[in-house]
From TrEMBL, chain A:
Keywords: Membrane, Transmembrane, Transmembrane helix, Transport
GO cellular component: plasma membrane
Location of the protein in the cell: Cell membrane
Gene3D superfamilies: MetI-like
Ranges of residues in domain ABC transmembrane type-1: 67-278
Name of this protein: Carbohydrate ABC transporter membrane protein 1 (CUT1 family)
GO terms (BP aspect): transmembrane transport
UniProtKB/TrEMBL annotation, chain B:
Protein name: Carbohydrate ABC transporter ATP-binding protein (CUT1 family)
Source organism (scientific name): Vreelandella songnenensis
Any Gene Ontology CC annotation: ATP-binding cassette (ABC) transporter complex, substrate-binding subunit-containing
PANTHER family named in the record: ABC TRANSPORTER ATP-BINDING PROTEIN, MALTODEXTRIN IMPORT ATP-BINDING PROTEIN MSMX
Superkingdom assignment: Bacteria
Record's keyword terms, sorted: ATP-binding, Cell membrane, Membrane, Nucleotide-binding, Transport
Domain ABC transporter: 4-241
Amino acid sequence: MNNKVSNNRAWLLVLPMLVLVAFSAIIPLMTVVNYSVQDVLGPNASFFTGTEWFKSMLNDSALQAAFVRQIAFSLVILAIQIPLGIGIALIMPKRGWQASAVLILITLPLLIPWNVVGSIWQIFTRGDIGLMGWGLRELGIDYNITRHSGDAWVTIVLMDVWHWTPLVAMLCYSGLRSIPEAYYQAARIDRASKWAVFRYIQLPKLTNVLVIAVLLRFMHSFMIYAEPFVLTGGGPGSSTTFLSQALTTMAVGQQDLGPSAAFSLIYFLVILLVSWVFYTTIMHMQKDKPPQGGA
Amino acid sequence: MAEITLKGLAHSYAKTPSGAADYAIRQMDHIWHQGGAYALLGPSGCGKSTLLNIISGLLEPSQGDVLFDGQRVNELPPEERNIAQVFQFPVIYDTMTVFDNLAFPLRNMNTPEYRVKPKVLEVADILDLTPLLGRKAKNLTADEKQKVSMGRGLVRDDVTAILFDEPLTVIDPQLKWKLRRKLKEIHERFNITMIYVTHDQLEASTFADRIAVMYEGQVVQFGTPRELFERPAHTFVGYFIGSPGMNFMAVEYRDDQVMFGVQPLPVSPALRHAVANANATNIKLGIRPEFITISTHHTDESVPVEVANVQDLGTYSLLTFILNGQTFKARLPEGHPPVGKAAFARFDDAHVALYIDEFRVETGHE
């Protein structure tokens, strides 16, 4: 028979947390959902629009372009920062004061606020007083981030690499340090080449930190806002206008609450989807494959 | 073929060692013969792992030579010595299957694939790994992983010695004896020198034909398990081997008698003579708990003792008694009549050993 105690008062204990989460996440998100299906004309004038905003957002060619740009940017910086981060971690000194010194030096860019990073690079790339801008001009290279979209792109990528590769490097460094010495010793006895040691010991042992690094860097770069905004303002033209900036222009600049709410939700879902697919794929790869005939 | 000779070997982790205490390995000479099953036994920190790493080439000794078949190999890295090593924690290559793990050392030597496969299958068969060959090594149990790391040493034809660094530490107790038997089997099947580092005397004596007992960076005795038990060459061996270890008494020669404090000991004339001529201050007599007889009646050969407690351990009892303020252990056979608070202990003459400055001195009285 059912001898469970039917006392549901325990749920009351969950209540404070529920209230907290409701105010911090659920209610704001639902407000956005609410806006995304309405056309708000004034404080008391709004009507239901259904999926109209979503359709128009998905068909907006400016947003589509920003989306493609955003994907390209995230892929480019991941393709550079992950290998570079691993490489730096591999050559970092392992012990002694050199290790601490290098760690501190490497961490410095991470401590600088986004806006400041943008400003630093904005000045750095100026043709008249910036070291890089001036230097390149002196070398006879026609470098100008306000005029050439290619230059603007390269600079933003460079800036992001400078700012965020240290995070990848630090994560990898900690991952490498946690590999027991016996693995390297066994590999020597097995006559493994340097490459084999990297491929079969270091890289597999780094999988977990690399998953974190890729996810963090993907989410971060996909939401990048302050740095390109300060550096190029999204220009020249709209060549460096990424999704966040497009959204801000719409929501704050034009007060288009409905469309920008719909857009926000799409934005959020894309990040969630990509992260989920990536994580699941990696985790699935580590499982045993179904047995195949013979070895 | 490999006969491993250590000549005048010493090692210190300090750059400029100042005293004996700075040495992880004190100067020593030792020979491991081809095809032997050896154990290096000692407590933690006695230098046994250091010695093993010197043999495998992971460490370069600060003094002396390591010779493989008479060839000096000090500077040769492990990959150029024909050895394999199994570590305390199983080292496997996570992303590879068991088959690829076993094939790894062969593939690193560019062995053609048609020769890799039969060799791997053969080794897998010996180690009972055949059903697991297609599995990812990462998902195996600890003992399976340890077998895989052992297997990587066995696939190579050029391996003449396998070094084990406490390989059963992470293995479940029920599986330990299985793996130990497997090791024995492998040793009998291949003509490979095996050196097994452990701090467990049972593990050492079931695996090895000869055991080297290490203490404070020195091999204090090298012998068969039986020799270690019956004729410990050093007080440490006496204390470390056996359970419980040997009883020791610091004695001196006074008034024509061997005195343990205020208690004269009834010992054989030969032993008394040896103690009288010892010419040292550190003289000890050692006796194993197995060779102390406890009785309730006094005889000429026994000394009065105060019984502290008796512990029943099933097949035998362990009696603790106090003599001259010092605690002794004696082993009573099953069915021994009960003893009271006061009893008499007789030390079996043939098994009383003399130690001068901690090393055994043969007296010929046995």
